[in-house]
Amino acid sequence: MPTAAGAGLPVAVDAMGGDKAPAEIVAGARLAADEGIEVVLVGPPDQVGDTLGLELFPCTEVIAMHEDPAQGVRRKKDSSLVRAAELVRDAKASAMVSAGNTGATMASALLRMGRLKGVTRPCIATPLPRLGGAPAALVDAGANAECTPQMLVQFAQMGAAYVAARYGIADPAVALLSIGEEPTKGTPLVKEAHSLLEEGAAGVRFVGNLEGRDLLPCPADVVVTDGFTGNVTLKTLEGCLRFLLETLYGVFGTDEATKAAAEVLLPHLLPIAEQFDPEGTGGAMLLGVDGVCVISHGSSSKTAMLNAIRVAHDLATGGLVGQLAEAVAAA
Hints:
By secondary structure, this protein is an alpha/beta fold. It folds into 2 domains: 1-119 and 288-331, Isopropylmalate Dehydrogenase; 130-281, 3-Layer(aba) Sandwich (Isopropylmalate Dehydrogenase), CATH 3.40.718.10. It is 44% helix and 15% strand. It has 11 helices and 11 strands. Strands 3-2-1-4-11-10-5-6-9-7-8 form an 11-stranded mixed β-sheet, with helices on both faces. Strand 1 (11-14), helix 1 (23-34) and strand 2 form a beta-alpha-beta unit. Helix 3 (69-75) packs across helix 5 (102-113), helix 6 (149-167) packs across helix 7 (188-198) and helix 6 packs across helix 11 (320-330).
């Protein structure tokens, strides 16, 4: 199993993943290739169609968005997701990227690449934007609905290694998501995890509990929680931001006064809105498997796919997997 991808290997892109596949996925992959990132598409040739000159690794099956992830991976061994994971496992690709079925993407990566030594369960790290600075990371953002305190400790270790590698944050601050700042607040899971982190079990700089209202902007570099809470939190933030922006844009242009205000404010607001646009984050990273796996948003456009491929390439060539392995082993 590889722990760091070698230079020159392509990024394997699931051409059939996402609501806008294959056209937008292929278009995004083409943009990445035009920037000098080597890409190989994975999918059934008759469904992918025009590859825009990119190499296609053929397969015969696709795991649909609605399919059961575990069953889909076990039954459809010649699916685009499984074959993409195998390319990474066999050192024929540096990383895999998919905007398809999230559960199936995780299962493919876990079953084909395997876990890093010592990792109990992989987790998803999703960027939380911070205006004017590097994003924070929310872990776990949906891989594990049920967790143990020890799993949260390990998420803290991997999350800290991830932000250090991706964003260059030295000695990242790690917080635990809870319903109050006090160590006595939260579920038994949160309180026990707090005790372990405070005692130094993770070997990270733990700064205590963090409440949901403080996530934007996030004072910590890593926010740790279970996958159920993390996924609900993430989608709540996305929905609130979308509502706020749509409401604000809806007000502009309703009369002469708001039109005049829009001319003044929009040049300042649009760059801020872009920082909160999930299209620009490059997707989420699956931490804990023996290979780079980037999970992009299901509605990814060519722009989102381009950014996801950039992230996958940078993390693979930067040796993220090896750094994660070291962080877990050291603790």
